[in-house]
Each structure stands twice: as C-alpha cells, then as structure tokens.
Amino acid sequence: MRWSRYSRLFLSQRNGWLLYNSASNSFLQVGEELVPALKAIQEDADGYDFSGQPQLYFTLRSHGFLVEDGQDDALYNILKMQRLTANYATQTLLLTIAVTRNCNFDCSYCYEGNRNGLPMSDEMADKLIEFIRLHSGLKNVGLVWYGGEPLLAMNTVRRITQGVEKMGKNYEAGIVTNGYLLTKEIADELNDLHIRWIQITLDGKRETHDGRRYLKNGGPTYDRILHNLEGLLKSDYKGRISIRVNVDTRNEDEFICVHRQVMELCPEDKKQQVSVYPGFVKGDDHPDVSCFFNPDDKGRFIAETHRKYGINPLSLFPSKAQAGCTLTKRNAYVVGPDGELYKCWDDVGIESLVVGHIDRFNDWNMGLIAEGMTGCSYLDAQECKECYYFPICDGGCHKVRMNHLRDGKTGSCCSYFKNHLEELLELHYEEKQKREAEKGA
Fold first, then answer.
1. Same domain (yes/no): 149, 119
2. SS3 of 32, please?
3. Cα separation of 56 and 59, whole Å?
4. Which pLDDT score is estimated for 112?
5. Is 32 exposed, middle or buried (0-12, 13-18, 19+ CB in 10 A)?
6. I need a surface site. Which of 195, 259, 288, 300 has the fewest CB within 10 A?
7. How many domains does the chain have?
8. Residues 307 and 380 occupy one common structural domain
9. For residue range 369-382, what is the model confidence (pLDDT) as tens digits?
10. What is the domain extent for residue 331?
C-alpha cells in the first residue's frame, strides 16, 4: 500500500487544507486535525496503523489517494490503452469538410490567405457522398462544415447532407463560420441540416474586431455578426452556440466585454445553449484554430477572469482527458474542395500535406498519416509518462508537437492546469461552496 504519486495535499490560505488526485479526479477538503496523519501516510502508508481510523482508510482508498503497490505504474498503461482504443475506434467517420476555400473576409492574420481554390463542385460533392457510403461498416458519421467560409457554399452543404441522410447512419454535424452570412433563412435551416453546434469567432470589442476581421473591401463586420447572432438566438435552433473570442496579450481585457454583450443578447431560455470562450492566440500571424496557445498564460487568464468577474472562460476543475483530434484518429480527415484529404485543419491547401483523395484508395501518404497518429504521440514521451498531470492532459496540440519534433524545437503543449492547479482548485472550491450556500438559503 502506498500514497499515490497523483495525490497532492496543499494548504489554501483562504480554505484550509485541500486534497486532490489527478488520476481519480477526486477533490476533498481536509480538517486541520487530519493533516499530521496524512503526512505520515505519505511517508509510510504500509507502516501506518489505520485500526483507529477505518473511515480515513476507506476514504483514501475509495478516492484513489491510497493505492496498491504498482497501481500507479499500471495506470499509465491503462490510460494509454483507453486513448489508443478511442483513436483507433472503427464505429465513427469524422470529416471536416472545407466546402470552399473562398471567404468574404480578409482577416489580417488568416493562415489560408495565400491558398486559392474554387468551391467544391457538385461532382466532387457526389464523390464525397460515395466516399462516406463506402465506409459501410461505420455506424456513425460526424461532419464539420469548414472553409474558407462554409456559408458561401450552402448548396453543397445541403447536397452532401441529403446524400448522407439516405444512408441511414447516425449522423450529426457542426459548422465553423464567421457569422456574417448567417441570415434568418439559414438559421431556420440548421436543425434540418442536423447541425448540432455552431462556432462563430469574434476578436474582441467592435474596434478591435473590425481592425482584424474585415470584409475583402475593408468594411466592418462586428455589428452584422452580432445582429445575426441575435437572430439565431431568437430562432428555434436547438443546437449549441459557441462564441470563440480570440485572445492575445493585446486584447485580453476585451473578453469580458464580449462575454457580457453576447449574454445580454441571450434570452433566458437559451443561456444553457450558449458558451463564450477564449481562443488563445499569438500576435497578428496567429492561425484561427483553437489548438495553438501558451498554456501558462491561459491558466493565468482563467484565474484572473474568475476573480475579477466571477466568470469561468474555461473550466476551473480538471476533467478526464479527451482522446485525440483529427491528426490522431484513424477514421478522421479534413476534406479539401477538390476532394483532397488532410490530417489537420491547418493543412488545407498545402499540397505537400495531402494524405490521400476521396476517389482513390491507393497511393495515400501513409507515412504522413502514421507520423500524426503515432510518430508525435505524447503517449510515448517519457516526460509525459512521468508527469503528475498525465491523467488530465490529452497532450495538447499534436500538430505543434509534430512540428517541434520535426524541427528539433522545444515548446510546451501542456495543460493549463500545470502551473495553476492549486490556484484553480481553490477557485473551484469557493465557487462550489457559494453555490451550496445559495441553494441552502
């Protein structure tokens, strides 16, 4: 019997002693009188006499703070097995579909700026439907409409949706849009198109946003997006609405302004559908995807936003890590407008990163696929294997990890909890206490 290496006992200046285990995700407040016993158990669990404290033994064992010899070592392999099983699961086909690389915006930082291309043709859409049909052994299909700006190619979205509906598979979709073309007519279609979530991006308050996310003629976009969002919130759309606010060192104070403005637009019965969250980015040349960020700054931002405004931009409490992304999943691809396939959203339009094509099942770049799925895996990194945070970390952005390994660079892909765990747990505990007090009042 031993004290789990994933257990952490720490003193909160405001809340006393707190005990957390990253493997079981258990979190307890500890009375001052128990601290000497816990420290003795940490030193020598086998030698500690629990005969007078059976409840303490039961609590520590049942919550994973106290484990059998070798149990912590086995946990790594168990978690690795679970995550690999999820990555290699064969029941679901996940496709992010860039129905066009055209866009009505000319964002200053767009990583697709020099990648030209026509919208997906009807012929190519039909080939994509056939590609999906040929995955006959897969029961589920998940599609993400992407671009460019996917609302510029709504006829293609409708065409592919109709083709998938006829297959009788479990099917749902999401869409990533700039929101400028999200008219009432399109909002009224979303439920019928099986679109269960929608992401719209803002870059801060009106002045900041319009200085970065402007039309091709330089015109502003913020007010139109907010108008369309208000219409969406008044519609009968039943899916989740995610408002991503791009945050960097220059506009981080604007997040709360956007959060308040969006929530003021939101009817009471829609608040559970809407989330406003930060997308952490770097400077003018950042890519507009969620996986590139500085984890330490991210943790600081989350803690400060909660303290100042009582808002949680992201979770204060860890969750069991989700398994992978398109790069790491066997049956997941990004589809370009010409039917070419990629393994990362960031790769669309880069010829050297094409891994295959929807109408050819030979001559695929299996080496590139394997590099993303296994060659850059955090599951094989010794520092990750030994890390206290491994049970609550999914390895961060795998594309960043791949690029670091290729270039021989170092850089953190770690969880934002890594340098802020105790601080965020304190805030979570206080929030929970406040909710319980309000409930009992």
1. yes
2. helix
3. 5
4. 63
5. exposed
6. 300
7. 2
8. yes
9. 999 998 888 998 89
10. 91-441
C-alpha span between 53 and 40 (Å, rounded): 13
Burial 352-390 (b: 16+ CB within 10 A, else e): ebbbbbbeeeeeeeeebbebbbeebbbbebeebeebbbb
**Is residue 10 helix, strand or coil?**
strand
**Up-side HSE of residue 158: CA atoms within 13 Å toward CB?**
7
The domain spanning residue 209 has which CATH number? 3.20.20.70
* DSSP state, residue 113: T
pLDDT digits (tens, 9 = 90+) for 398-416: 888 888 888 877 667 889 9
User: 165: closest CA among 186, 194, 189?
Assistant: 194
DSSP conformational letter for 298: H
Specify the pTM: 0.90
Rounded alpha-carbon distances, angstroms, from residue 377 to 104, 169, 325, 409: 37, 31, 12, 16
In a shared domain, residues 10 and 125 = no
Q: Which of 321, 322, 318 is nearest to 422 (CA)?
A: 318
The answer to the question of residue 85 being in a domain is no
How many Cβ atoms from other residues are within 10 Å of residue 36's Cβ? 9
Give the pairing of strands 26-30 and 16-21.
antiparallel
